[in-house]
Model the fold of this input.
Amino acid sequence: MNAPFRFLHSGDLHLGRRFGNLPEEVRSRLVEARHQILHRLAEAARAQGACDVFLAGDTFDTETPSDRIWRQALAAMAAAEGLRWWILPGNHDSLGAETLWARLAAQASDNVRVLTAAAPVDLAPGVVLLPAPLPRRRPTQDLTAWMTEAATPEGALRLGLAHGPVKDFSEEGSSAEAIIAPDRARSAGLDYLALGDWHGQVFVGDRTAYAGTPEADGFRHTGRGACLAVSVEPGRVPGITRIETGQFHWAEAPLPLVPGQDPAPALAALMPAAAAARRDHMLRVRVSGRATLADHLALQDLAQALAPDFAHFVLETAALDTEIDAADLETLDHGGALRLAAEGLADRAQNPALAETDRRIAAGALNRLYAYLREGA
Ligand SMILES: [Mn+2]
Done:
């Protein structure tokens, strides 16, 4: 074969993921974005002149996705005319999900191929795919090992497809024996090894990569999801292009404060410039350092004013200490019972004899009382 072979490398779609830890109003939007990613991947493949899409495991979030999830996914894949979808069972949707894969085998269109065996698959003349499907959720060996011995026609391109860690990412205790050899592309003579499992995009040498999830699903990896367009030809290092496909932009931003610092400009600096884009932003701001009672309140007010613009906005203040200053207390209910309560809390919050958690609880209560009295004033 002369022309380079082009394909799209993606994975970890986690279709059907429920996002139960997020508020109701954003959940359905995230679920829908996961479904729509199939259309976005199809678009990206066409734009890159690729006819094949590799899904490197965890296409489905669970072994038993609801009928809506898998039927609508199949329909979307079937509608992508001229494209072939190569689906590798991962750890969330391993071959242990017998019902799921039996249903797909029975109902999927011809352009959807589930890779159920660790055996070479001819993709095109002179192009062979070597898949390593997960037989069960937790494999006990490096499933790419067979690729070293896999015979392919002289001169054929060898493409590996696997799911799992190349080092101990220690997310859910993958066993050490199952770790994929990071130099597998070299030892098995692969032109490219397409990996899934890690949800961010990571390059492991110039012939091995994690495409990451095409629709981001957590604060751990900042930005929008992406896939990889890969172009391989014999004897050359593959050409790899990152293509952003995700709808939602996830970010976690630190906001360190010092007492007396106006939190407004610091917070404003973390905002996406285009207000309209905020609708698709998931932003978690982690505040740390120290702030006065007045600045705590100003920060909460700012956050409350900003939040409705966002798909999801959280201000985490658990790590923000309170600087108790007499001037702030002076502004409260002079000589009244609430002022006495505030002073009592201030004493507790600053009492070195108390445990850290008790001091924090007192500081938290003082901040709430302060906010209540100021907003009432
Ligand atoms: Mn995954």
